[in-house]
Amino acid sequence: DGYSIGMAPPQSYLDVHTPRFSRAVNLTDNDHDRTWHADFSYFGANVYAVLLAKYGDAIDFVSIQFYESYSRAAMNIYHDGVPPEIYLQRYVRDLVEETGGSFAVHFQDDEAMGLPNQRVPLPLSKLVWGFANGWALDTE
Question: CA–CA separation, 50 vs 23, rounded Å?
Answer without folding.
Answer: 9
